[in-house]
Amino acid sequence: LGATATLAAVGVRFAPADAEPGPVLATAAAVARGETATPDLATAVRTRVAARGIARLEAASALAALGDDVRATSHPRALEDAFRSYFAFRARHPERVRKPYLYFVDYGLPSTTPRGWVFDMERKRVVEGPFMVAHGRGSAPAGETIPRRFSNTSGAATTSLGLYVAQELYHFRGKAGGQRYESIGLRLAGVSRGFNDNARARGVVAHGAPYVTATRAGRSEGCPAVEEARAQRLLPKLSQGALVFLFAPEQGWMQRDPWVTAEG
Predict the structure, then answer these.
(1) Is this model's pTM higher than 0.90 or not?
(2) HSE-up of residue 63 (Cα within 13 Å, Cβ side)
(3) Could you read off the pLDDT of 250-263 as tens digits, one per residue?
(4) Which of 65, 73, 243, 248 could form a Cys-Cys staple with 78, CB 3.0–4.6 A?
(5) Please, where are the H alpha helices in the chain?
C-alpha cells in the first residue's frame, strides 16, 4: 500500500468488526490521509486488502459454479449478495466459520415456491434444494405469500434479513394450529448489525415445523422454518459454524448491510 494514491486507487471499504473499529481500519484511514503508518500495521492493512480481494474472487467462482443450479431468484443480485457476504465474513472471522455450508433463502419469492437451498461452499455444489421455507407472520398479512416487512425488533414476529452464524442444536417446542409440537432447533447469531443482531434474543432459530410441507410454507414467528424431516437431516450439518443468509430485494437493507456491501 505505502502511498495515499495506491490506497485511493484500490477504493477499499472494510466490513465492520463486531465492536468498534480496530487499529487496522484506523491505519487504513491514516494512510489515506498521507500519515505514516507503523510497518506492522501497514502489513496488516495489506493483508486485509488481499483477503477481501480473495473473498471477491471466491464469490465470483461460487456464482459461476452454482448460478445455473439456482435459476429462479427474485433479484439478479440474490446469489451474488449471499456469496459475497459468506466469503467476506469468512475472511474477517475465519475462526467462526467452522463448516463449509451456507443455508440461503430468497424471501423475494412467494411461500408457494421452493426458496431455500443449502450449498457446500468449498466444493461449490448444492447439498439440498430448492425447498420450502417459512417467513415470519409479521412480515406479510395472512393471504399474502411474499414478505414485505422486515424487522430486528423483539415481538414483531418478522423475518430479519442478512447473515447469521449457525450455533448449537436444541430441543425445539412450538405451537401450530392450536396444537403443540416438538422438533429439532438450531440457534442463530445475527451478524448483520442493525438488521438481525437481535435474532438470538428474539428467539429466531431454524427449526422443523408441521406448517411447512413439500408444496407450501405457512408463517412462523420470524424463523426460517422447514419441513420437520428436512430439519432433522439438514440442521445437524449446519450447527456450530455454518452460515445462513436470508435475502429479499429490499433496497434499504441491500444498500446498508455491512456484509453485502463489503468490498475487497
Answers:
(1) no
(2) 19
(3) 999 999 999 999 85
(4) 73
(5) 4-10, 23-32, 39-66, 78-92, 199-202, 228-238, 251-256
